[in-house]
Amino acid sequence: MLFRSETYIAKLMPRGITTYFASCGMWEYAFIGDNSLYTMYETWLKSYLEFPYISSCLDHLFPIDYISDSISHLTREGAVIHSRILGKELIAQMHYDGYL
C-alpha cells in the first residue's frame, strides 16, 4: 500500500511507527529497455514519500520463469527469492536507522 505523505505525518509518525517503502517483484521485460522510466518512477517516489524508499526497482526484476499471471505477480519460487532480497534491504535500512 502506498501511503500518502500526509497520512504518514498525521497518523503514523506521531505514534512512533516507522514505515519503509520497497519495490515489488516485476517481470524483467516489463518496460523493455528504457531504464529512464525506472529512474523517473524512483525520483518521483523519493520526492513524494516522507519515509525511506529502501530498494531499487532494478534489483527486483525477474525472468519470466518466476512470473505468474501478470507482470507483477510472482510464482511461489519468485516470491521466495524476492523475500530474501527484501529482507536484506530491510535489515540494512534498520541498521542504518539504529534499530538493529
Your description of this structure?
The protein has 100 residues and is mainly α. It has one domain. 43% of the residues lie in helices and 4% in strands. The protein has three helices and two strands. The chain has helices spanning 5-12, 35-48, 76-96, and strands at 26-27, 61-62. Strands 1-2 form a two-stranded parallel ribbon. α2 links the parallel β1 (26-27) and β2 (61-62). The longest helix has 21 residues, at 76-96. The radius of gyration is 15 Å and the shape is globular.
Number of domains: 1
Q: What is the H-and-E element order?
A: HEHEH
Strand order within the widest beta sheet: 1-2
> Which percent range describes the beta-strand content?
under 5%
Low-confidence stretches: none
| Number of E-type strands | 2
**Main β sheet profile:** 2 strands, parallel
Task: Report mean pLDDT, rounded to a whole number.
Answer: 84
How far the N terminus sits from the C terminus, by CA atoms, comes to 25 Å
C-alpha-based Rg, rounded = 15 Å
The SS-based structural class is mainly alpha
* Total helical elements: 3
Helix content: 40-55%
Shape: globular
How is this structure best summarized?
The protein is mainly α and 100 residues long. The chain is built from three helices and two strands; from the N terminus they run H-E-H-E-H. The chain is globular and about 45 Å long.
